[in-house]
């Protein structure tokens, strides 16, 4: 979270970042406005070896484990609106996934978008999200930070989302949760390509859709150490995680 | 084409100020253009009455679909009242941004701040309409 935020806070005008990463420990992330107090127990999560963090972006809970996470940061890009970026990124993800044999498509509009307390992110697709076979493969969310746009999201390699009801204490441990709305690359590819290869393919599709000239770079050395440290403290604080 | 009523003041961040009958008291919300760009609004976080903000301070956040944006205080002001109806039904901002979808009522601290705001014609040019 801190690195994504720091990239957004420091990206120069007319520039952008496309970043891929994985999680060192399984982590539940909550959306910016999603209720956390009284719903998520950090001790229960810790006992299961799972961390808890709150995103700066909207949307609802995701269990980050067997996934490839992307983030896109732009400032002064193209049409500039959040919806335009949302459309461009999701089109690129569909294109990239199709190139490796996944028949991905964009979710149609099926009614008003869900509020932040409507349950886990992958329970229902929002309009324009990446689906396969009518089920959600990629969950994404955005924030505008003083004119900079950050969009990040989870491309599921396997379905860990079925653990969320148990981790939230909504069902008993060991009770199987049904996640008919979720799909993962395991359902469509055998074997699932290495994540480096997926990142290369999806990154290439994102750069092509976003346009402009891109070059490879390592994110951390480019970031201001003090800014990154401040944001790491922010995202580790329980005040932020349980702000609502 | 979005609705840009005459008689209101507008900001580059797509907020409007509507003068009330009380001196230096204005109703603030986001414009029809802004709600259209954001899409389905699902959550709005507003300050408490009595809070004060400097010009361009973030006074709240708005979530549309899964996108979060700050709301910026257009002038230095004190919050007099917030629209509690938006807690239960944030879609009022989509359906009636200039009416039931108002967000806060403010008392302007420095009337000079108002001089930097746009009238409806300038705002229409700003959004390309």
Could you name the key traits of this structure?
heterodimer; A: 244 residues; alpha+beta; BirA Bifunctional Protein, domain 2; six-stranded antiparallel sheet; three-stranded mixed sheet; 30% helix; 21% strand; B: 129 residues; OB fold (Dihydrolipoamide Acetyltransferase, E2P); three-stranded antiparallel sheet; 4 helices; 9 strands; 17% helix
Write up this protein:
The complex is a heterodimer of chains A (244) and B (129). The longest helix of chain A is centred in the middle third of the chain and has 18 residues, at 82-99. In chain A, a hairpin with a 2-residue loop joins strand 8 and strand 9 (148-156). In chain A, strands 1-5-9-8-7-6 form a six-stranded antiparallel β-sheet, sandwiched between helices. Chain A has a three-stranded mixed β-sheet with strand order 3-2-4. Chain A has one domain (2-241): Bira Bifunctional Protein, Domain 2 (BirA Bifunctional Protein, domain 2, 2-Layer Sandwich). Chain A has helices spanning 2-10, 42-47, 82-99, 164-167, 195-210, 219-222, 225-236, 238-241; strands spanning 16-21, 27-30, 51-54, 62-64, 67-75, 104-106, 130-132, 135-145, 148-156. In chain A, helix 1 crosses helix 7 (225-236) and helix 3 (82-99) crosses helix 5. Chain A has eight helices and nine strands. With 244 residues, chain A is an alpha+beta fold. Chain B is globular, with a radius of gyration of 13 Å. Chain B has helices at 32-38, 85-88, 92-95, 120-126, and strands at 9-10, 15-19, 25-30, 41-45, 52-53, 58-64, 67-72, 77-82, 104-108. Chain B has four helices and nine strands. Chain B is an alpha+beta fold. Chain B has one domain (9-122): Beta Barrel (OB fold (Dihydrolipoamide Acetyltransferase, E2P)), CATH 2.40.50. A six-stranded antiparallel β-sheet of chain B has the order 1-2-3-9-8-5. The N and C termini of chain B lie close together (7 Å). Classes of the chains: A alpha+beta (244), B alpha+beta (129).
